[in-house]
Amino acid sequence: MSRPGSSDEPSRSARAEGFPLSLGDQLVANGCVTPRQLDLALQRQRAGTGGTHEAHLVGRTLVEMGCITQSALLQCLYHQFALERDAYTVDETVRPVIRMERVVKILDNRRVLDAVDLSIPANRVTAIIGMSGGGKSVTLKHMVGLMKPDQGTVWVGEEALGRLSSRELTRVRGRFSLLFQGGALFDSMNVFDNVAFPLREKTGLAEAEIRLRVMRCLEEVNLVGMERKYPDELSGGMMKRAALARALVTNPEILLLDEPTAGLDPIIENAIHYLICDTFMRTRYTMVVISHAVPEIFNWCHHVIVLHRGKVLFSGPSREVVTSRDPVIRQFIRGDLDGPIQVI
Question: What is the pTM of this model?
Answer without folding.
Answer: 0.89
